[in-house]
Fold this sequence. Notes:
This protein is an alpha+beta fold. It has six helices and three strands; from the N terminus they run ααβααββαα.
Amino acid sequence: MDEKCADDGCPVARAVEILDGRWTMLVIRDLLGGTKRFSELRNSLAGISPKTLTDRLRSLEENGLVRRVIHAEVPPRGEYTLTDTGLGLEPAIRALGAWGATVASAPAGTPTTGVK
């Protein structure tokens, strides 16, 4: 990446702004598997609080990455699905997973290769 830009116009800074938060990428990772209900997401993300999950889903929805559908039932049933924009993150999530697996398997203190 040779292009330098000010933070307010930098695509990487914009992506980090949208994807910020401890759980955000994990929510996206889980939704790459298809539509999920709130309870399914909560169960798959051990340790996340309902408030944090709600906040992350709302943020992703506001940024056009997630679509929420509420079914008129008693009790109401909400489902979350990645939009086409959200699905566009799949290569990045896969790359992060591959990188994470490499780093996780390296002995402590071993420098990673290919990072400048």
